[in-house]
Design brief:
This protein has 265 residues and is mainly alpha-helical. The protein has 8 helices and 6 strands, in the order βααββααββααβαα. The protein has one domain. The longest helix has 27 residues.
Length: 265
Protein backbone atom coordinates (compact mmCIF):
# COMPACT_ATOMS: atom_id res chain seq x y z
CA UNK A 1 0.00 0.00 0.00
CA UNK A 2 1.45 3.35 -1.05
CA UNK A 3 1.63 6.27 1.37
CA UNK A 4 -0.46 9.17 0.03
CA UNK A 5 0.13 12.86 0.70
CA UNK A 6 -2.58 15.31 -0.40
CA UNK A 7 -0.78 18.40 0.93
CA UNK A 8 2.78 18.05 -0.30
CA UNK A 9 2.91 21.86 -0.80
CA UNK A 10 1.11 22.57 2.45
CA UNK A 11 -2.03 24.71 2.27
CA UNK A 12 -0.92 26.47 -0.92
CA UNK A 13 -2.65 24.10 -3.35
CA UNK A 14 -5.95 23.84 -1.41
CA UNK A 15 -6.11 27.64 -1.12
CA UNK A 16 -5.35 28.29 -4.78
CA UNK A 17 -7.70 25.54 -5.93
CA UNK A 18 -10.53 26.96 -3.79
CA UNK A 19 -9.98 30.43 -5.29
CA UNK A 20 -10.15 28.96 -8.80
CA UNK A 21 -13.39 27.11 -7.96
CA UNK A 22 -14.91 30.30 -6.53
CA UNK A 23 -13.83 32.35 -9.55
CA UNK A 24 -15.38 29.92 -12.01
CA UNK A 25 -18.55 29.58 -9.96
CA UNK A 26 -18.94 33.36 -9.47
CA UNK A 27 -18.48 34.01 -13.16
CA UNK A 28 -20.77 31.16 -14.21
CA UNK A 29 -23.53 32.08 -11.78
CA UNK A 30 -23.28 35.74 -12.76
CA UNK A 31 -23.70 34.72 -16.40
CA UNK A 32 -26.69 32.57 -15.42
CA UNK A 33 -28.20 35.61 -13.70
CA UNK A 34 -27.66 37.65 -16.87
CA UNK A 35 -29.23 34.86 -18.94
CA UNK A 36 -32.40 34.86 -16.84
CA UNK A 37 -32.86 38.56 -17.64
CA UNK A 38 -32.27 38.04 -21.38
CA UNK A 39 -34.14 36.34 -24.22
CA UNK A 40 -33.38 34.53 -27.46
CA UNK A 41 -29.80 34.40 -28.69
CA UNK A 42 -28.54 36.57 -25.86
CA UNK A 43 -29.85 34.10 -23.27
CA UNK A 44 -28.22 31.19 -25.09
CA UNK A 45 -24.87 32.96 -25.29
CA UNK A 46 -24.90 33.84 -21.59
CA UNK A 47 -25.72 30.24 -20.69
CA UNK A 48 -22.89 28.94 -22.89
CA UNK A 49 -20.50 31.32 -21.18
CA UNK A 50 -21.79 30.17 -17.78
CA UNK A 51 -21.20 26.51 -18.65
CA UNK A 52 -17.68 27.22 -19.90
CA UNK A 53 -16.85 29.26 -16.79
CA UNK A 54 -18.17 26.79 -14.20
CA UNK A 55 -16.75 23.75 -16.00
CA UNK A 56 -13.37 25.39 -16.50
CA UNK A 57 -13.25 26.57 -12.88
CA UNK A 58 -14.04 23.08 -11.59
CA UNK A 59 -11.43 21.46 -13.82
CA UNK A 60 -8.75 24.01 -12.90
CA UNK A 61 -9.57 23.59 -9.20
CA UNK A 62 -9.14 19.81 -9.47
CA UNK A 63 -5.76 19.87 -11.17
CA UNK A 64 -4.35 22.70 -9.08
CA UNK A 65 -5.26 20.59 -6.04
CA UNK A 66 -3.66 17.55 -7.70
CA UNK A 67 -0.27 19.30 -7.65
CA UNK A 68 -0.29 18.55 -3.94
CA UNK A 69 -1.05 14.85 -4.49
CA UNK A 70 1.99 12.57 -4.22
CA UNK A 71 2.51 8.87 -3.56
CA UNK A 72 5.71 7.61 -1.94
CA UNK A 73 7.53 5.15 -4.16
CA UNK A 74 6.18 6.17 -7.55
CA UNK A 75 6.20 9.01 -10.04
CA UNK A 76 2.85 10.41 -11.18
CA UNK A 77 1.99 11.17 -14.78
CA UNK A 78 -1.24 12.02 -16.63
CA UNK A 79 -2.71 10.54 -19.79
CA UNK A 80 -3.35 13.55 -22.01
CA UNK A 81 -6.52 12.40 -23.91
CA UNK A 82 -8.35 11.42 -20.71
CA UNK A 83 -7.32 14.66 -19.03
CA UNK A 84 -8.75 16.69 -21.92
CA UNK A 85 -11.87 14.51 -21.91
CA UNK A 86 -12.42 15.34 -18.23
CA UNK A 87 -12.38 19.06 -19.12
CA UNK A 88 -14.85 18.51 -21.96
CA UNK A 89 -17.18 16.49 -19.74
CA UNK A 90 -17.09 19.17 -17.04
CA UNK A 91 -18.16 21.87 -19.50
CA UNK A 92 -20.79 19.78 -21.32
CA UNK A 93 -22.52 18.27 -18.29
CA UNK A 94 -22.49 21.55 -16.36
CA UNK A 95 -23.89 23.12 -19.54
CA UNK A 96 -26.83 20.72 -19.41
CA UNK A 97 -27.48 21.83 -15.84
CA UNK A 98 -27.45 25.58 -16.48
CA UNK A 99 -29.54 25.23 -19.66
CA UNK A 100 -32.17 23.29 -17.70
CA UNK A 101 -32.32 26.10 -15.14
CA UNK A 102 -32.16 28.83 -17.79
CA UNK A 103 -34.99 27.45 -19.94
CA UNK A 104 -37.06 25.51 -17.42
CA UNK A 105 -40.69 26.55 -16.85
CA UNK A 106 -41.16 24.77 -13.51
CA UNK A 107 -38.64 26.23 -11.03
CA UNK A 108 -38.55 23.36 -8.53
CA UNK A 109 -38.15 20.64 -11.14
CA UNK A 110 -35.62 22.69 -13.11
CA UNK A 111 -33.48 23.30 -10.03
CA UNK A 112 -33.58 19.63 -9.05
CA UNK A 113 -32.65 18.43 -12.53
CA UNK A 114 -30.14 21.24 -13.13
CA UNK A 115 -28.45 20.79 -9.75
CA UNK A 116 -28.26 17.04 -10.22
CA UNK A 117 -26.75 17.40 -13.69
CA UNK A 118 -24.24 20.01 -12.50
CA UNK A 119 -23.25 17.94 -9.46
CA UNK A 120 -22.83 14.81 -11.55
CA UNK A 121 -20.71 16.84 -13.95
CA UNK A 122 -18.41 17.81 -11.09
CA UNK A 123 -18.14 14.18 -9.96
CA UNK A 124 -17.63 12.84 -13.49
CA UNK A 125 -14.84 15.33 -14.13
CA UNK A 126 -13.12 14.38 -10.88
CA UNK A 127 -13.12 10.64 -11.42
CA UNK A 128 -12.22 10.92 -15.11
CA UNK A 129 -9.30 13.11 -14.06
CA UNK A 130 -8.25 10.46 -11.55
CA UNK A 131 -8.54 7.78 -14.25
CA UNK A 132 -5.93 9.75 -16.22
CA UNK A 133 -3.32 9.28 -13.45
CA UNK A 134 -0.48 6.93 -14.35
CA UNK A 135 1.76 5.44 -11.65
CA UNK A 136 3.65 2.28 -10.71
CA UNK A 137 0.57 0.85 -9.11
CA UNK A 138 -3.22 0.86 -9.23
CA UNK A 139 -5.89 3.06 -7.68
CA UNK A 140 -8.92 1.76 -5.83
CA UNK A 141 -11.71 3.60 -4.00
CA UNK A 142 -13.71 3.23 -0.81
CA UNK A 143 -17.33 3.10 -2.09
CA UNK A 144 -18.80 4.99 0.87
CA UNK A 145 -16.53 7.99 0.42
CA UNK A 146 -17.20 8.02 -3.34
CA UNK A 147 -20.96 8.07 -2.78
CA UNK A 148 -20.58 10.86 -0.21
CA UNK A 149 -18.48 12.94 -2.62
CA UNK A 150 -21.17 12.68 -5.31
CA UNK A 151 -23.93 13.63 -2.85
CA UNK A 152 -21.92 16.68 -1.73
CA UNK A 153 -21.47 17.79 -5.34
CA UNK A 154 -25.18 17.41 -6.20
CA UNK A 155 -26.49 19.03 -3.01
CA UNK A 156 -24.18 22.05 -3.20
CA UNK A 157 -24.71 22.60 -6.94
CA UNK A 158 -28.48 22.59 -6.38
CA UNK A 159 -28.18 25.03 -3.46
CA UNK A 160 -25.94 27.38 -5.48
CA UNK A 161 -28.34 27.42 -8.45
CA UNK A 162 -31.29 27.96 -6.13
CA UNK A 163 -29.62 30.99 -4.55
CA UNK A 164 -28.80 32.42 -7.97
CA UNK A 165 -32.32 32.19 -9.44
CA UNK A 166 -34.14 33.04 -6.21
CA UNK A 167 -32.21 36.09 -4.97
CA UNK A 168 -31.30 37.94 -8.15
CA UNK A 169 -28.65 40.27 -6.77
CA UNK A 170 -24.89 40.45 -7.09
CA UNK A 171 -24.27 39.66 -3.38
CA UNK A 172 -26.47 36.55 -3.72
CA UNK A 173 -24.44 35.33 -6.69
CA UNK A 174 -21.23 36.00 -4.74
CA UNK A 175 -22.47 34.07 -1.75
CA UNK A 176 -23.61 31.21 -3.97
CA UNK A 177 -20.15 31.14 -5.58
CA UNK A 178 -18.49 30.81 -2.17
CA UNK A 179 -20.85 27.94 -1.32
CA UNK A 180 -20.14 26.23 -4.61
CA UNK A 181 -16.40 26.73 -4.17
CA UNK A 182 -16.58 25.06 -0.76
CA UNK A 183 -18.69 22.27 -2.24
CA UNK A 184 -16.33 21.58 -5.13
CA UNK A 185 -13.34 21.57 -2.76
CA UNK A 186 -15.13 19.32 -0.26
CA UNK A 187 -16.17 17.01 -3.06
CA UNK A 188 -12.59 16.85 -4.34
CA UNK A 189 -10.98 16.07 -1.00
CA UNK A 190 -13.76 13.67 -0.01
CA UNK A 191 -13.15 11.84 -3.28
CA UNK A 192 -9.41 11.88 -2.64
CA UNK A 193 -9.99 10.45 0.85
CA UNK A 194 -11.56 7.46 -0.91
CA UNK A 195 -8.34 6.73 -2.80
CA UNK A 196 -6.16 3.74 -2.01
CA UNK A 197 -2.93 3.02 -3.89
CA UNK A 198 -1.48 -0.47 -4.37
CA UNK A 199 2.10 -0.25 -5.64
CA UNK A 200 3.56 -2.74 -8.11
CA UNK A 201 7.09 -4.08 -7.66
CA UNK A 202 7.77 -3.91 -11.42
CA UNK A 203 9.03 -0.57 -12.72
CA UNK A 204 7.94 -0.28 -16.35
CA UNK A 205 8.14 2.97 -18.26
CA UNK A 206 5.24 5.29 -17.43
CA UNK A 207 3.35 6.89 -20.30
CA UNK A 208 1.72 10.29 -20.26
CA UNK A 209 2.93 13.74 -19.30
CA UNK A 210 4.24 15.13 -16.03
CA UNK A 211 2.16 17.84 -14.34
CA UNK A 212 4.68 20.54 -15.26
CA UNK A 213 4.75 19.45 -18.92
CA UNK A 214 1.01 19.50 -19.51
CA UNK A 215 -1.28 20.20 -16.56
CA UNK A 216 0.41 23.35 -15.30
CA UNK A 217 0.44 25.25 -18.65
CA UNK A 218 -3.17 24.25 -19.35
CA UNK A 219 -4.31 25.25 -15.86
CA UNK A 220 -2.59 28.63 -16.23
CA UNK A 221 -4.23 29.15 -19.62
CA UNK A 222 -7.69 28.27 -18.33
CA UNK A 223 -7.18 30.43 -15.26
CA UNK A 224 -6.33 33.36 -17.53
CA UNK A 225 -9.49 32.66 -19.53
CA UNK A 226 -11.56 32.88 -16.33
CA UNK A 227 -10.06 36.21 -15.28
CA UNK A 228 -10.39 37.76 -18.75
CA UNK A 229 -13.98 36.57 -19.06
CA UNK A 230 -14.70 37.94 -15.58
CA UNK A 231 -13.48 41.36 -16.73
CA UNK A 232 -15.69 41.16 -19.84
CA UNK A 233 -18.78 40.26 -17.81
CA UNK A 234 -18.07 42.96 -15.24
CA UNK A 235 -17.76 45.63 -17.96
CA UNK A 236 -20.70 44.52 -20.13
CA UNK A 237 -24.01 46.29 -19.36
CA UNK A 238 -26.92 44.39 -17.83
CA UNK A 239 -30.34 44.21 -19.49
CA UNK A 240 -31.57 46.94 -17.13
CA UNK A 241 -28.59 49.16 -17.96
CA UNK A 242 -29.13 48.64 -21.70
CA UNK A 243 -32.78 49.60 -21.31
CA UNK A 244 -31.75 52.72 -19.39
CA UNK A 245 -29.23 53.63 -22.10
CA UNK A 246 -31.88 53.15 -24.79
CA UNK A 247 -34.39 55.27 -22.88
CA UNK A 248 -31.78 57.99 -22.36
CA UNK A 249 -30.99 57.93 -26.08
CA UNK A 250 -34.66 58.29 -27.00
CA UNK A 251 -35.03 61.21 -24.60
CA UNK A 252 -31.95 62.87 -26.11
CA UNK A 253 -33.39 62.46 -29.62
CA UNK A 254 -36.68 64.00 -28.49
CA UNK A 255 -34.81 66.91 -26.90
CA UNK A 256 -32.93 67.53 -30.14
CA UNK A 257 -36.08 67.14 -32.25
CA UNK A 258 -38.01 69.71 -30.17
CA UNK A 259 -35.87 72.78 -31.00
CA UNK A 260 -35.80 71.74 -34.67
CA UNK A 261 -39.61 71.63 -34.78
CA UNK A 262 -39.79 75.02 -33.03
CA UNK A 263 -37.52 76.59 -35.66
CA UNK A 264 -39.57 75.07 -38.48
CA UNK A 265 -42.73 76.53 -37.00
Amino acid sequence: MGTIDHLSFGWLTPTLSYLMACTGAALGLRCTLRALAATGTSRRNWLLTAAAAIGTGIWTMHFVAMFGFTVDGTELRYQVPLTLLSLLVAVLVVGVGVFIVGHGTHRGRSLLLGGTATGLGVAAMHYLGMAAVRMHGTLSYRPGAVALSVLIAVAAATAALWATVTIRTLPAAGGAALVMGVAVSCMHYTGMAAVQVHLHPARTELGGATPMEFIFPLAVGLGSFLFLTSAFVALSPTARERAAYQEAGEIAVEDLRGPALDRAA
